[in-house]
Design a protein that fits this description.
201 residues, globular, 0% helix, 23 strands, mainly beta
Length: 201
């Protein structure tokens, strides 16, 4: 099952309990589409392949509870006209798969003030036309294998709270890139092994 929410016009799903299992999920598929998904309570959402939040259109996922698992790849702002955002808070648990792209060709924004987010490689601003931002605050817990704040496009990571644990952190992949990691407040950044690649935080 491939699920399209807000393919050409606005559409949304509210899930507070039960189990929902799909192969691929598209939110805001076409340029006129606007898709939203709200996950709370004890709801379980499983995407067995890729998830596109803002393929060509605009899309938002709001998770305050429940469990959301993406088995393969997560895209926020996939195409150049795509705009995708994810808001994780409360007791939500999110597994973003082997690769998470926040701003692939388009614009992506991940905001986490609570909950737990685990994943493999996390990219902010993957392609040259991609633009990705991640904001971590409150009691949010982020755990990844590696993080690229700006691959070919611009990336910004702002942490004022929570805990970010990763194996490798790269800030600024390309020459002249305007990428940054801002750490303040009660935020904890743990890079193990202790290596910061290609630029200073």
């Amino acid at each position: 099952l491939h699920l399209f929410v807000g393919q050409t016009v606005a559409g949304g799903i509210l899930q507070s309990d039960g189990e929902f299992d799909v192969r691929k999920l598209y939110l805001g598929d076409l340029s006129t589409g606007n898709g939203s998904y709200s996950l709370s309570g004890s709801g379980t959402l499983t995407v067995n392949s890729e998830e596109y939040i803002g393929n060509h259109g605009t899309a938002t996922v709001t998770q305050t509870g429940g469990t959301h698992t993406v088995s393969s790849r997560l895209y926020l702002g996939y195409e150049s006209d795509g705009d995708g955002s994810y808001d994780l808070s409360g007791s939500g648990t999110f597994q973003s798969g082997s690769y998470g792209y926040v701003g692939y060709h388009g614009t992506g924004e991940f905001t986490q003030s609570g909950g737990t987010h685990t994943g493999g490689v996390l990219y902010l601003g993957y392609e040259s036309d991609g633009d990705g931002t991640y904001t971590l605050s409150g009691s949010g817990i982020l755990t990844t294998s590696s993080e690229w704040v700006g691959k070919l496009g611009p990336g910004t990571f702002t942490q004022t709270g929570g805990t970010n644990t990763t194996g490798y952190l790269y800030v600024g992949e390309t020459s002249g890139a305007n990428d940054s990691y801002h750490l303040s407040g009660s935020g904890i950044l743990d890079v193990t092994p202790k290596e910061i690649g290609r630029a200073h935080v």
